[in-house]
Amino acid sequence: MKFITTSMAVATAFIFLISPSCSKKSSSSPSCKLITVIDQYGSTTNTINISYNNDGKISTIQGTGSSPFKKVFTYSGNLMMITTSNASSVTATDSVVLNSDGLISYSMRKDASNIKTVYTYTYSGSQLLKSTYQYNGGSIQTTTYTFTNGDLTGSAEGSNTAVYNYYTDKNSADGDFLKLVQLLNYGGLYVKNAHLIKGFQQGSTVENFNYTYDNTGKITGLTATTGSNIENVTFQYNCN
């Protein structure tokens, strides 16, 4: 699993948003924005830098290293546009529609060959009930979701199922694995968990997550372990 070009199956089934600022223990504490993600997987290291506009929304996500890319975000009402490019050309354009709760209701990605991938999302309140996926006008695939105590605990697409578990004593925060996958791949939200993801199992694949913190409670490191494979991610913030 790599965050920049995530290969695990749940990356295409789940889209998560990292909030623009991290929570603090006191309302008088400065707000913090995640600005740098350093991802080390084996001998490969990639650095991702995040910038924000004057409204505190993400304006660019840019990756350097073995897989360089740049995502540019623009906003108009409830519409978010994301243009992704590599060193030489635009590789994809995403059109994302947000509902009144700020959750994704519709997303369409058009790649450089004009092939379209379309997602739709159905909610009960703020909890996701189901999503649909359609690639290049083909058959529509539907995934259903189960929540327990404010956390996504199960998903199913036909016989393909996954289960998720959480650190129930730790609130979800910037640096949470699921939020990070969302941030780097999509920049929009359709699942918001109450607690920090601890691990998941999909078929025979089991992945577990451990976190480190600074003295203010911000997540500064994430270790993802799948069998003998270990990925280490560190985070840097701008607080003002």
From TrEMBL:
Residues 1-24 form the signal peptide. Keywords: Signal. It comes from Niastella vici. This is DUF4595 domain-containing protein.
